[in-house]
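User: Just a sanity check before I run the rest of the batch. Below are the structure tokens for the first item. I only need the designed sequence back.
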């Protein structure tokens, strides 16, 4: 390292020389070069390297110029502030330049002068050069001082360059210059006169030797000799004569005798001629000692900064009397202080006399100890003290030995100029602070002007401090040494001593000493100054409790001198300090103002350091402060805020204002957060002020909450609630501010709407939950936005907030990790509404939950973010289960310590959603933690459940919609190539699985959040295989796609690219002309591409309506990509992902001919699969509980049924899209019926047209005029609401218990369960709900959304009875088989043919249902008679249907054959075509069966008569006309229905009358002839009427009514 420094300096000096060479003429450079090379020889390398070459050159050359004017024998001094413009170089400091004859003490003495002025030295350069001068005095040569030392023409010159703190003040600069000049003069005088002074000293020794008469004189002379042998630095000498002065003596200098610093020229101007001597000096004059030693009263200016040492030698006259003094001034050398006292004359004699006087054994311990004491005595004291005082002090110290005591030994200077004080204190007490305190005490006691301190610390247990207090002569008072020592003892009594006493008092000797050992030196000086030791005892106790914990300890206290609103608050913490930036807002939110903070670090050995923060607080509000009542509340609240158990906000003011504890404040905070989520227009801060400004009402709110939900208050609950409501009402009437009144009444409303809370639930450690749950009755919550859920649970904690909304008692839906902190309930409400629509295919109605993470880690730390999300999710779930009933053995088990103000409510299931896709196992673990009856059915899709991605169930469900849309266009997606663009990538479930579901997909473009994928002319097989490879990867993106397999012109491009080039092939594929586009524009073009299918499998909303704004859409991230529905050029849109289009966007696309359902229709398979999983697990849970199966076997069975469950789910998707497709073909004809259903649902409060974007009455009128019906997206919504209504109606009816539907419960489950566990199915807790759901879907998917409502309007029957009648009709005609046969015609016959066939079957079912309803309404079916009725009807159908060709009259048979032929030619097999074509006739078989039973006649006979009468009375023509009747209004429809019902009755009645008079042997023809003959006039009239009606060529309702009237005449004839 040293070598590297020397190298660096060498390079720097070379650079300096080269710099000078370039600036100086060659002759001048030659002279100055050696000077520059050696000027910085002894300067620190770092100091040099921190300076620029120009500055180094400037400093050296400036000094060189100063040296030019130097004259030997005098100094050259320059003090200035270098300025570049003025001096040619620059320094930030003040520069002192000195050139002087080389002599000792120069640098030390100048440094002393600088230090005396309080200036810091920044740089010191002091080379010595040998200089040669020319005749004109200029320097002609300069070199190192050691060069040519013998040359008499040269002189040594000392160059001194100091840089000190910059002095901008000219006066201060002058003081500095003059002080240095004086010092240089003193140095020169001392150095020049030193030989003379030494010579005088030697002469004095000779004189003393000549006259010495006693040992004392010998010692005195020996001392002078000792001084001259390098033990004294002589700085000055002068002789003085003793004169009388003012009644005493004085000393007057002998003119011409002064040398060194005592030269007359060095004396300050105006100094007194005579120096008076104090009275004590008389002893010296009269004493026998020829020499005296002391200290001068001035500090040295040369060599060292101490007080000058003063050696006075008495001068005697001829008579032996003292006539004067020879004074030597200087400094003892360091050797004098290091040699043994036994080697110093005078001192050795003193010490020997003291030892002798002590009388100790010469070689004894005490004698040796005394010698040691004297040897270590301050050397100046040994020189100056008289023998008596030294003896007393030394013996005093010896007696101390190792006692831990404080002692003071004082010696007063005989000239009263100073006092020497030796202080002994226990070493452990000694520190700088103690030294300063003792110095202050002594200075004050002796009226001192200054104090010198010299401490000595050795192995001894005592520390010795030598104080020398200097005072002005005559100003030092007499001091009682004992009293001063007593005061000193108090001063040296440490705070630690008081602490020792206090700890022993508080904890006893053993523990007290242990704590003292640990804490004696732990408290900082600031603490000891601020608090008595007794206070520390309490602090130590609290700190001890904190060790090993991360908790806080606190202490609210009130000093007696505090004001009425002031108090103090101590906070204790082990480890790190409490940041003021964190604690200050907490305290302010607690309603106090922080006036000051005192932090103290308490460091103890072998323990964690602790911090004490003492806050001076003042109440910010003018409220009564009673420390006794609020101390615990305040401390607990602060700790809760600090630990994050409660939030740091203005609600915490209620702790002091309303005297609420932290958890009670949390009740109000939780309600406030809920009110903000439900749309309160007031800010958080305003809500806070409303409560804190009305603390009494806030207190009452908490009291009301407690009264409602405290489990221990059951007996007084109602009375207490009434009392509090009255008090609150009175208080609210007194609130003057209208806004505050509204806020407070909202609080009252939500408290009243609360049905359950977990506030009183505790954990296994009996600690309250760290979160709060409220269960609400939403219908009671004031101002709650529509649609209102049926149940709502709000979960609040400082860490997470969440809400769970349910549309019914049995509901399911996912829990979403929301990022919408401010309005996540709005998001969840919209999703719940969508879930209600989606869930019509499953047992539970819709629900949705969502939570927000309130303190997320940095987004860059994904692992920490995931951990926090999971923890918040778990908290949210616990909050839900805390207030949810359980089931045990079929009995309800309410949650512990939860007061319920609502009925039993045990059904709670959850599912995965955005952000929680992998969380199901966490949810089921919590379900088991709670012993919840659903166990791992609580959350579907866990590790023991159905993996939706592996099953591809959501994508497969969406693909059913795709296939249905294409089938409507006559395209089979599984056999025909088609073009696709999409949103998503192959790593995703919906998109990845979806793009593998057909080998004929030609995916030409797609994008996700990372890339844009373009493949303008893909090969279906190649691209399918590559997509499959990507999907199989654990993680993938479009960047992993093998670009070699992409068609020419395509590629994969990052969305971060500035622009993306577009080939001609891509332009053609996307239908654009741009050669390059920005990524956002390209993605818009992809969305608007002219392709067959747009498949959305991503996250985001990409399509809106033209009339919608991006703000209304609420997906800012995709504003730049979003297009309008009118701009889509694809034929079909499939929504595998949620919310890809707005509902208005869907409608706009559909109105322009696009084929689209809704996301709820397309991706319902996921929720359907989850619900099947839950219900299967509930069933198998019963089996496991009965011991018929182990859990391991259950899990294996679940896995085995995966494919079966998938098929069950896809059936729902298939039939739901089928229902929409069929209805869409008859949209215009169905509009009135659908509108009537829509309006009825709206009147019933079950539908809000505005929220669901269904057409207004004005829009409906426009569509009727334009021959337009509902769009499929609109019909999908209506379909869902009709199912929800019918589901509820069936649950309210006894239909689920009807034996007719018992088999449907079994059909709901997979086939492996149907045989083995049909018995436990009847015990399924959700049996009724399963049947209601299954019935609803089975019927509505087959007959349409308006069917049941239309029959309800026609017949005034209840929905349950209509469904029962439909089931009876379905079973009698075995319509399930017919429907399945028609389903099998997919892609075999035209889609419109299939649709017509379904419509025909629906008409048969409608007629059958009406017939059975008539039977049920008329009471024709007695208890248990349904089975008989069904058997009769089934027998009639089964017997007569095959005989129809023989039974039907010729004309009817020809018409039937024609209908059959049309279907057969369309591709339908003959048998099925006949069944469908004979639907109208088949319905009449029910009438035939009824008549046969009534008349007890043969079925075939009755059928023959029925059909023969039909031919005679033209039933076929009448039915044809009636069916063709327009029914523009509901009333027309009802009238037609009534007429047809009457017509059917008449047909049965006429058949009965024809049979009544016939014998068993008559044929149908003969029976009709007989009947005809008896009614000839009436029949003729009837025939004429029909002829007239036929002649008109039209039909009307009035015509139908006339026919019915005429047929009634035939009945009566």
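Assistant: Here's the designed sequence for the first item:
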């Amino acid at each position: 390292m040293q070598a590297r420094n020397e190298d660096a300096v060498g390079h720097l000096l070379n650079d300096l020389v080269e710099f000078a060479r370039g600036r100086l003429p060659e002759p001048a450079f030659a002279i100055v070069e050696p000077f520059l090379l050696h000027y910085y020889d002894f300067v620190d390398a770092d100091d040099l390297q921190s300076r620029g070459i120009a500055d180094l050159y400037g400093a050296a050359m400036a000094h060189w110029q100063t040296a030019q004017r130097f004259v030997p024998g005098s100094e050259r001094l320059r003090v200035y502030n270098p300025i570049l413009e003025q001096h040619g170089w620059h320094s930030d400091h003040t520069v002192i330049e000195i050139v002087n004859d080389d002599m000792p003490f120069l640098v030390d003495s100048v440094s002393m002068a600088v230090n005396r002025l309080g200036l810091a030295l920044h740089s010191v350069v002091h080379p010595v050069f040998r200089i040669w001068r020319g005749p004109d005095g200029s320097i002609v040569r300069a070199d190192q001082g050691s060069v040519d030392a013998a040359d008499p023409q040269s002189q040594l010159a000392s160059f001194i360059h100091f840089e000190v703190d910059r002095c901008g003040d000219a006066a201060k600069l002058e003081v500095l210059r003059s002080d240095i000049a004086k010092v240089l003069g003193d140095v020169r005088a001392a150095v020049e006169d030193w030989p003379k002074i030494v010579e005088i000293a030697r002469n004095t020794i000779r004189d003393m030797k000549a006259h010495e008469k006693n040992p004392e004189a010998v010692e005195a002379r020996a001392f002078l000799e000792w001084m001259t042998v390098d033990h004294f630095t002589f700085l000055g000498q002068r002789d003085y004569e003793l004169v009388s002065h003012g009644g005493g003596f004085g000393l007057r200098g002998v003119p011409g005798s002064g040398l060194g610093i005592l030269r007359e020229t060095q004396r300050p101007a105006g100094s007194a001629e005579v120096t008076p001597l104090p009275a004590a000096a008389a002893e010296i004059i009269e004493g026998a000692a020829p020499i005296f030693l002391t200290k001068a009263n001035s500090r040295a200016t040369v060599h060292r900064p101490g007080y000058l040492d003063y050696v006075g030698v008495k001068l005697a006259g001829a008579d032996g009397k003292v006539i004067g003094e020879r004074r030597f001034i200087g400094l003892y050398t360091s050797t004098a202080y290091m040699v043994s006292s036994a080697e110093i004359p005078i001192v050795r004699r003193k010490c020997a006399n003291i030892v002798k006087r002590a009388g100790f054994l010469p070689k004894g311990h005490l004698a040796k100890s005394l010698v040691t004491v004297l040897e270590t005595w301050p050397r100046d004291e040994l020189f100056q003290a008289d023998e008596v005082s030294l003896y007393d002090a030394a013996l005093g110290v010896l007696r101390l030995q190792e006692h831990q005591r404080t002692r003071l030994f004082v010696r007063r200077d005989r000239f009263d100029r100073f006092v020497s004080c030796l202080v002994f204190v226990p070493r452990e007490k000694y520190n700088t602070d103690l030294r300063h305190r003792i110095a202050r005490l002594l200075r004050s006691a002796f009226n001192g002007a200054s104090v010198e301190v010299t401490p000595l610390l050795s192995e001894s247990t005592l520390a010795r401090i030598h104080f020398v207090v200097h005072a002005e002569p005559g100003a030092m008072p007499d001091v009682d040494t004992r009293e001063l020592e007593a005061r000193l003892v108090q001063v040296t009594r440490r705070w630690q001593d008081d602490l020792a006493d206090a700890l022993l008092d508080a904890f006893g000797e053993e523990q007290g000493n242990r704590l003292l050992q640990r804490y004696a030196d732990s408290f900082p000086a600031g603490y000891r100054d601020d608090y008595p030791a007794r206070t520390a005892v309490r602090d130590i106790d609290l700190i001890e409790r904190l060790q090993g914990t991360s908790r806080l300890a606190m202490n609210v206290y009130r000093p007696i001198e505090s004001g009425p609103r002031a108090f103090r608050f101590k906070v204790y913490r082990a480890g790190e300090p409490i940041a003021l930036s964190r604690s200050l807002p907490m305290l302010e939110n607690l309603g106090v103002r922080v006036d000051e903070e005192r932090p103290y670090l308490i460091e103890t050995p072998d323990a964690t350091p602790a911090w004490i923060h003492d806050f001076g607080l003042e109440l910010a509000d003018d409220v009564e402060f009673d420390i006794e009542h609020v101390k615990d509340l305040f401390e607990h609240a602060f700790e809760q805020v600090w630990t994050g158990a409660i939030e740091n906000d203005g609600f915490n003011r209620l702790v002091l204002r309303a005297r609420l504890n932290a958890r009670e404040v949390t009740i109000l905070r939780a309600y406030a957060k809920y009110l903000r989520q439900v749309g309160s227009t007031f800010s958080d801060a305003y809500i806070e002020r409303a409560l804190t400004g009305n603390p009494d009402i806030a207190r009452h709110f908490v009291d009301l909450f407690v009264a409602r939900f405290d489990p221990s208050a059951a007996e007084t609950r109602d009375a207490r609630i009434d009392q509090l409501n009255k008090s609150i009402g009175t208080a609210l009437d007194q609130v003057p501010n209208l806004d505050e009144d509204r806020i407070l009444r909202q609080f009252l409303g939500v408290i009243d709407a609360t049905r359950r809370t977990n506030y009183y639930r505790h954990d296994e450690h009996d600690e309250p939950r760290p979160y709060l749950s409220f269960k609400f009755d939403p219908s009671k919550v004031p101002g709650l936005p529509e649609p209102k859920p049926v149940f709502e649970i709000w979960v609040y904690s400082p860490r997470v907030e969440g809400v769970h909304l349910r549309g019914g008692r049995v509901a399911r839906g996912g829990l979403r990790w929301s990022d919408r902190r401010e309005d996540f309930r709005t998001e969840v409400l919209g999703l719940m509404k969508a879930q209600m629509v989606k869930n019509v295919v499953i047992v539970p109605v819709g629900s949705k939950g969502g939570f927000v993470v309130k303190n997320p880690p940095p987004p860059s730390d994904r692992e920490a973010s995931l951990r926090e999300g999971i923890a918040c999710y778990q908290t949210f779930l616990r909050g839900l289960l805390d207030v949810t009933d359980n089931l045990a053995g079929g009995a309800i088990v309410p949650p512990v310590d939860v007061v319920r103000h609502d009925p039993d409510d045990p059904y709670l299931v959850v599912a995965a959603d955005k952000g929680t896709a992998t969380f199901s196992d966490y949810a089921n673990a919590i379900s088991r933690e709670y012993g919840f009856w659903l166990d791992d059915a609580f959350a579907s899709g866990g590790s023991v459940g159905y993996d939706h991605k592996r099953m591809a169930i959501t994508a497969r469900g969406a693909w059913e919609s795709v296939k249905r849309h294409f089938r409507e266009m006559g395209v089979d997606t599984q056999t025909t190539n088609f073009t696709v663009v999409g949103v998503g990538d192959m790593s995703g479930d919906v998109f990845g699985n979806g793009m593998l579901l057909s080998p004929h997909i030609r995916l030409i473009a797609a994008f996700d959040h990372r890339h844009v994928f373009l493949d303008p002319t893909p090969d279906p097989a190649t691209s399918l295989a590559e997509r499959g490879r990507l999907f199989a990867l654990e993680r993938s993106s479009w960047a992993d796609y093998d670009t070699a397999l992409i068609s020419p012109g395509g590629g994969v491009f990052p969305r971060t690219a500035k622009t993306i080039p577009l080939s001609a092939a891509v332009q053609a594929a996307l239908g654009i002309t741009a050669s390059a586009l920005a990524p956002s524009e390209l993605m818009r073009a992809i969305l608007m591409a002219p392709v067959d299918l747009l498949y959305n499998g991503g996250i985001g909303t990409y399509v809106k309506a033209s009339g919608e704004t991006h703000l209304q859409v609420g997906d800012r991230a995709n504003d730049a990509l979003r297009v309008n529905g009118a701009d889509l050029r694809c034929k079909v849109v499939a929504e595998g992902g949620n919310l890809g289009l707005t509902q208005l966007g869907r409608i706009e696309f559909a109105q322009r001919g696009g084929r689209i359902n809704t996301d709820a229709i397309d991706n319902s398979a996921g929720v359907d699969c989850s619900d099947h999983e839950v219900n299967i697990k509930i069933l198998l849970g019963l089996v496991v509980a009965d011991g018929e199966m182990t859990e391991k076997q259950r899990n294996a069975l679940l896995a085995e049924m995966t494919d079966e469950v998938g098929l069950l789910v896809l059936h729902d998707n298939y039939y739901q899209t089928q229902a929409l497709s069929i209805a869409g073909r008859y949209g215009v004809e169905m509009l009135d019926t659908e509108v009537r259903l829509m309006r009825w649902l709206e009147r019933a409060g079950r539908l809000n047209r505005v929220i669901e974007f269904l057409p207004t009455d004005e829009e409906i009128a426009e569509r009727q005029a334009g021959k337009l019906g509902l769009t499929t997206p609109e019909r999908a919504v209506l379909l869902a609401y009709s199912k929800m209504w019918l589901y509820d109606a069936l649950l309210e009816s006894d239909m689920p218990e009807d034996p007719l539907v018992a088999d449907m419960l079994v059909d709901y489950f997979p086939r492996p369960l149907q045989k083995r566990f049909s018995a436990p199915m009847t015990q399924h807790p959700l049996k009724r709900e399963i049947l209601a759901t299954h019935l609803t879907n089975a019927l509505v998917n087959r007959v349409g959304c308006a069917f049941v409502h239309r029959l309800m309007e026609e017949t005034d029957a209840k929905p349950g009875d209509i469904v029962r009648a439909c089931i009876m009709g379905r079973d009698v005609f075995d319509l399930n088989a017919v429907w399945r046969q028609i389903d099998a015609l997919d892609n075999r016959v035209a889609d419109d043919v299939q649709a017509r066939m379904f419509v025909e079957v629906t008409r048969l079912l409608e007629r059958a249902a009406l017939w059975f309803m008539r039977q049920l309404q008329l009471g024709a079916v007695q208890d248990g008679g349904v089975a008989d009725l069904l058997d009769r009807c089934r027998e009639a159908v089964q017997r007569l249907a095959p005989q129809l060709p023989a039974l039907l009259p010729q004309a009817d048979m020809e018409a039937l054959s024609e209908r059959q032929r049309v279907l057969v030619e369309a591709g339908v097999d003959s048998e099925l075509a006949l069944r469908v074509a004979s639907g109208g006739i088949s319905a009449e078989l029910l009438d035939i069966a009824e008549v046969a039973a009534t008349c007890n006649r043969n079925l075939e006979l009755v059928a023959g008569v029925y059909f023969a009468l039909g031919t005679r009375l033209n039933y076929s023509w009448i039915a044809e006309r009636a069916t063709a009747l327009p029914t523009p209004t509901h009333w027309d429809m009802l009238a037609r229905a009534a007429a047809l019902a009457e017509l059917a009755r008449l047909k049965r009645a006429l058949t009965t009358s024809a049979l009544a008079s016939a014998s068993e042997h008559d044929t149908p023809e003969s029976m009709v002839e007989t009947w005809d003959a008896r009614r000839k006039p009436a029949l003729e009239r009837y025939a004429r009427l029909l002829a007239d009606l036929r002649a008109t060529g039209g039909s009307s309702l009035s015509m139908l009514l006339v026919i019915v009237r005429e047929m009634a005449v035939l009945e009566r004839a």
